Amino acid sequence: xxxxxxxxxxxxxxxxxxxxxxxxxxxxxxxxxGDHTLHIDYVQGDPFASPSRLRAVFxxxxxxxxTNILQPAIRRLAAADFLxxxxxxxxxSISRDRGSGKSGAVRILRPGQxxxxxxxxxxxxxxxxxxRFTAGLPAAGRRVLGRQAAExxxxxxxxxxxxxxxxxxGELEALRGHALLAEDSxxxxxxxxxxxxxxxxxxxxxxxxxxxxxxxxxxxxxxxxFEAPDGLMVTLEAPNRGQVVGMGVPxxxxxxxxxxxxxxxxxxxxxxxxIYDHIDGDxxxxxxxxxxxxxxxxxxxxxxxxxxxxNFIIDLPLGEDTAHFSTANASGSTSxxxxxxxxxxxGACCLLIDEDTSATNFMIRDAxxxxxxxxxxxxxxxxxxxxxxxxEELGVxxxxxxxxxxxxxDVADTVxxxxxxxxxxxxxxxxxxxxxxxxxxxxxxxxxxxLLGRVPDPASIDAQKGRKSVSIKVQTSTRVLxxxxxxxxxxxxxxxxxxxxxxxxxxxxxxxxxxxxGRRTLRAALEGLMExxxxxxxxxxxxxxxxxxxQFRIHELAAALGRLRxxxxxxxx
Length: 573
Description:
There is one protein chain. The protein is an alpha+beta fold. Strands 1, 2, 3, 4, 5, 7 and 8 form a seven-stranded mixed β-sheet that branches. Strands 19-22-23-16-24-25 form a six-stranded mixed β-sheet, sandwiched between helices. Strand 27 (472-474) and strand 28 (479-482) form a beta hairpin. Helix 1 runs antiparallel to helix 5, helix 4 (73-94) runs antiparallel to helix 5 and helix 13 packs across helix 15 (554-562).
């Protein structure tokens, strides 16, 4: 595409002033602003429609990013995250009402508390910065407001971009600190396996959040800083800040116990979130978890597509095949069994479970209930009888919040007690209690059976709606209209940004017929897709290259596919 002079954009806007809104199509193209190139990639057809998509490219000689910020890759990703945050602040200051509908609205993706790869701002190895954002082109009714458009496109937007990106080192020390923090966090996570750990919480961390809809930390005056108990205290080495002291959560089966409102679920949520790096001031900086840890919960009413839940549930009264279990309306126990099988199918190495969001009959059947309801009448093998097998035979650890099922003491390797928001190592005491107060419950279930692989039918992953071959509308941070189907993802608690949900929905479309080709197993197909994303970036999933996607894991992608009510699969082999 030919790059035109900035003045050409100004003259084009002047020429279409007062004309019908469709005249804005003439401004599409690339323009040289001297220190950067502005690309108007898509022009909206109406002031009330989705805003126009713009892209600004700043070359290395303008951004002036030092080499030690561009390498290694984790620093570069964190630098992009940092600049995205600064640019969001600047763009918000120039976004204002300039006419009808969305006229004058300027938006760039707003980052949350985690440091993620996003398509809104990217930095390549040479130091070129690409910022993607949207702008509502000004109109009165459906008539072009040329003066306001020129003010926005030729004045306010370039000034905002330059204030952050020309050069991108205006806050170099803060930028460097952001990058080094991400590098330290990633290094600690990478070192967990070698130390035999699945998670690490540093001393001094602030784990509570402000509310269920506000992921920022609770005010320091209200929060209790985390302390590492003696029995679980470890020291890890970070490349920049050196030794970091905190609590290590070992591999195996770990219980988090304690009274109500003493911080059990808060600790588990911090472990869930440790799969991501966090920004300075979040409170969970350097709290890290192995990347393949997956939160599991019951989810009444979800769809299940031919999932092998036979290790947990067999001999249903109506004779349903639980090795190929399908339903449009799962119960609590079948949904939790399916979630575990789906997570294992794509490589989960650790399961995170809270009894508050679990099906009780799936988690345990005590001795009295075993005596009353005979084995022949109970199709469920409770999780307590599979947890040890999962670890010893598959190497899959489990962390469980338990408040009322002391029978789990019998299978636990580690017991963390939370009291007044502080942890204690109660492993020895729990073992003594287990020995003193024997439950007399019988172990249930036989050998663990290898899970059957699944091959999705790409034709069943259909986002078509009416004349649109692809229709994806993200309604909330957990709900997507995927073609004609509503896709509910609220049970995927490790998603932290709406941009991840949007990217997952688009990745499903991208994968259908490519990686999900009707021959590959689900795991092979999604691993291929994730490798493609790793090699080429998130842009690979969408040729339009919009600026509203964020990185996601194979686990949430697979889980989203599993909740698609049109999904059809067959067994591999």
